[in-house]
Specification:
homodimer; alpha/beta
Chain lengths: 378, 378
């Protein structure tokens, strides 16, 4: 039976990784031990100081709507965090608090994009970007991630409204250099920079797009840095003249973000940076372990990722169909990985390993993958 | 300077009531006493048992993403609540949990509506409905609220996809009768029934659209019944074949609702119905007080509202411009009311009084309005 759903949503595909997760859970129910390396979510619980502040706000009866732009103290804390981290001078008036980065992207793109406008993203890219773009009637233009900042000029047209970047990147875990960001910020389209993985990185510090152009738009949130995925708290930093229009859209589409979650956000920025740094140290150790492990089983990654919590590796010489291989690895070894196809056409032939798991499980998982590949392909 | 924002969002207007609120807060800062009768939000704190369960879930580290459709136990509780309240047999598999009714409406309409489809709503109506509709490219068709179920047939075309109803209604506080709902449910377009004010009503019980047609779609949430506005927790009940498509949209656009807020929702349905009934008794008292008060100052309402927490009264014989009158009343008396214009063309010439305030303030506020109108117009 064919149902009469809208054309634009029929194009939106389910994530293959969700099918992997479903299969993994079903295997677990059957008693099989599963090592979860498929999901892009910190395994840590939210730091205690953050949890306690949400509980306090609840006890204080902070259960009503807030200002649609967010509690002023949170907007101030976010601007101070950006100013201190990147040596900027952003006014708190430019901060719009949202219920996660997803609703931020929804209203931002509703505001910026007209039917048939074009948005450039890298290939591979975070799986959901094209859905946010297509929900406005605009078009996604894919530019290969490799040499993105050079090749992009071939793809810019009069219709290109936005260049959406993500550094450190999901799924690759790699970053744009200072020079690449400078180059991108000089192009005509507005840079929308998804900085959700900032602070989960090692070596040279992360650069904010706002350091290169004051007209850049920042999308960020608390999910990854503070292990707060379930809380649904994000924000945008936008040029002043966007704020009133975004306030109206937030009023209409979401009313306001959650008050006690916003209190927790203030605490995160004011008191939990040390805990975020500790978690980052752990990710750094795990990253090293994962890269060495993958190299030892014949899956070296070049260039090395140094951010986020992903290792994205090429398996196309063994198997072009990433979903097929991810399913086989799961069934044979109990190790769950994300099929690269989720992240765009150039993600096909790759697998994403998320090292949000213990050192022991990362090592064990990679050894099992190695053994499986050796038996099957060598 | 003209900015290049999308046409569809330029059409979305700010709520005039927000300007009233802003002015009221500024007067408060200047030391003036304000009686707030403008906002559609329970003045009660969320019942303690609900707050405690959220705190427990936080202490237990429930801070990660959940299933995109919501925690199974909450979906089950919602289906049981509907089945018990309306004598239905809804499967929990038909429930989709969302971060409030607003995100529910966003993804539902994204799924159902094609560019140029038509959605019928009443005039007056909840201020945000047209924004959700226009965000999909579809058109809002207004049918006068009075005689809605009869006159609607003149407005139905081949393009009418949805009839969006809201009973008890914001802003009128009145309800469709059993017969009217039956009539509407027999029409060809799908009924989407926003039942957010169900349980805040007196006299005959509320009827769910699902009692009249199993193909109806329900939008509801915890904000009003349980005084949980800030929590952002809502849900839909949809035909089975919608669920998978909505799951994909939720994954893409919102990932999942908040886990500890969902735990609180389970507690609300399982343990806080008595508190909801107590609050309803208080609203019933206040409604009587407000209606008697308005009648005593020459503003009778006919038919009497018996649901939600609004009294919507005609002031067009005194002043056609509702924003002008609301501003004057606020400045002169300190009583804040919502201008009827926010709720559609037929709302103009009316004011909405929300009796989410103490008996004392409701009485005092209405007396002040009466005195002002007498001095100015009589």
């Amino acid at each position: 039976m064919k149902y009469n759903f809208s054309r634009k949503t029929q194009q939106i595909q389910p994530f293959l990784v969700m099918d992997i997760l479903k299969k993994a859970k079903s295997l677990e129910r059957d008693g099989k031990e599963i090592i979860h390396l498929e999901l892009g979510e910190p395994d840590f619980k939210t730091p205690k100081v953050i949890i306690e502040s949400a509980k306090d706000a609840l006890s204080n009866g902070e259960t009503h709507y807030t200002n649609s732009l967010g509690i002023s103290e949170l907007r101030l804390s976010i601007s101070e965090y950006y100013n201190q981290t990147y040596n900027l001078k952003i006014s708190p008036n430019r901060v719009v608090v949202t219920s996660g980065t997803s609703p931020a992207m929804l209203i931002l793109f509703q505001l910026m994009l007209e039917e048939d406008d074009e948005v450039i993203i890298s290939d591979p890219h975070y799986a959901c970007y094209p859905s946010f773009i297509s929900s406005t009637g605009a078009k996604t233009i894919l530019v290969p991630y490799k040499n993105f900042s050079t090749e992009i000029t071939d793809f810019i047209t009069d219709k290109t409204k936005v260049i959406l970047i993500n550094s450190p990147s999901n799924p690759t875990g790699t970053r744009f250099s200072n020079e690449e960001l400078k180059k991108l910020s000089k192009l005509k389209p507005t840079i929308v920079s998804d900085e959700i993985y900032h602070g989960i990185s090692t070596g040279i510090r992360d650069y904010s797009a706002l350091e290169f152009s004051d007209n850049s738009i920042i999308i960020n949130g608390f999910s990854k840095l503070f292990a707060m995925t379930g809380w649904r708290l994000g924000y945008m930093i936008v040029p002043e003249h966007y704020v009133r229009r975004l306030e109206i859209l937030q009023q209409n589409f979401f009313i306001s973000p959650n008050p006690f979650v916003q209190r927790a956000g203030i605490t995160a920025l004011q008191k939990a940076i040390p805990q975020a740094k500790l978690m980052n140290d752990i990710y750094t150790d795990r990253r090293k372990l994962a890269l060495e492990g993958l190299e030892s089983i014949g899956l070296p990654i070049n260039p090395h990722p140094d951010g986020a919590f992903y290792a994205f590796f090429d398996i196309s010489n063994l198997e072009k169909n990433s979903m097929k291989l991810a399913s086989e690895i799961l069934t044979s070894t109990g190790v769950a990985l994300a099929p690269g196809k989720d992240f765009g056409p150039k993600g096909e032939g790759h697998l994403r390993l998320s090292y949000c798991n213990s050192n022991e499980n990362i090592e064990k998982g990679i050894n099992l993958i190695g053994k499986f590949l050796k038996e099957k392909y060598l």
